């Protein structure tokens, strides 16, 4: 079973303060880039893997999606999502993405935001998603970028000229990485970009887009802290198609 | 026109001492991984972009390729390749990969080893390769990994615990990187993995494999220095298909 850090009281209290928790999709700087990879949702069936508070589910319905199924391991998240949603076209379910299976050829878009780096058996999940997708259906997801995750001691370093650099080490050593983020001992799974993409290709998906998110000049002007995202990528956006 | 560093006397003298220059394909640790991406070459037409001394061209013919065209900007390289080759099925030509065009649908395999990071207009070249390929034809290439190239000051750092890390900065700032490698002022072009892959997808190629080369345990046992390649990837292997 996947680690359920979102039901840790301290973690959850911290997580709810993030801009993306408070403001939803518009609080996430990568959202415009992710949105550009989404198909037209009118009348479509949507699956949200790691749905959190349901921000995406509600947005997808506002775009005309016929049905959205949001899955999350966290009772906290699902509880909050249900509280915030009044829509019979959206269903939320507590589910472990390490084990979940879906009805075949039932989904037009499988979406996931910053959840799949918590999954140890990514290949199993990808195979499940492949079978869940209808032919032509899309799988669009974001994960933490492996450059961001690889190091034994991730975090900015300052070089002799006072410039920030990000350390990469252990890049080829895939597997768990324990970090402290709102709570101690949060476990993420590092995979190289190649490994992630080859698993998608291996199950039969076609890679349509790979983006290492970087903020636009306008975004940096509005939020100066985002400039450091030009130095090293924090997020990877992938779009694949059955 | 691309920088012609291989015709710099000092650079060339240094380059010829590399294991891959002396021993050919078997002197390159990534070769088994690259070879695994190559199609059966019997009767096929092969294009080698940045053919160097012609090691790959001769190997391809030994595998039964009907014809190999090797291109390189460097007179030094082409001269040496011709000296070492006695085979009417191999043709070497001096050519600038920034400008070269090919006959349409004439090639079964376009191959390139560690040359395309010297190319500024990668998209133009990729479009040329796409049109040169027959349907089903493959484009298999290696380039320096963007993790290796991105930093303003690439090179190992040692952290407080004495562990080696590799700095990443300026990752989203694509463009020229000036380095000193056998000669001063060697110009390479940094592109993110996403940019490289999206250019392939954009012209109509399908991504078949993406590999961030890491040595095997056997390779490390035979050559201890290779262990550092587990810390950060130096090379990216890509296979795409028309």
Q: What is the CATH architecture assignment of chain A?
A: 3-Layer(aba) Sandwich
Give a quick account of the main beta sheet of chain A: strands, pairing sense, barrel closure: 7 strands, mixed
Largest interface: A-B, 37 and 37 residues
Quaternary state, please? homodimer
Spell the H/E element sequence of chain A: HHHEHEHEEHEHEEEEHEHE
Query: What structural class do the secondary elements of chain A suggest?
Result: alpha/beta
Number of helices of chain A: 9
The CATH top-level class label of chain A: Alpha Beta
Rg calc of chain A: 18 Å
The averaged pLDDT of chain A comes out at 95
Number of strands of chain A: 11
Assess the beta-strand content of chain A as a share of residues.
25-35%
Stated plainly, the CATH topology of chain A is called Rossmann fold
Main β-sheet, spatial strand arrangement of chain A: 3-2-1-4-5-11-10
Low-confidence stretches of chain A: none
Helix fraction of chain A, binned, reads 25-40%
Distance between the termini of chain A: 27 Å
* Principal-axis shape of chain A: globular
Q: What is the CATH H-level superfamily of chain A?
A: Vaccinia Virus protein VP39
Number of domains of chain A: 1
Short précis:
The first copy, chain A, has helices at residues 9-15, 19-22, 31-35, 55-62, 75-83, 122-132, 146-149, 193-203, 217-222; strands at 45-49, 67-72, 90-94, 107-113, 133-144, 157-158, 164-168, 175-181, 183-190, 206-212, 235-241. The first copy, chain A, contains nine helices and eleven strands. The mean pLDDT of chain A is 95.
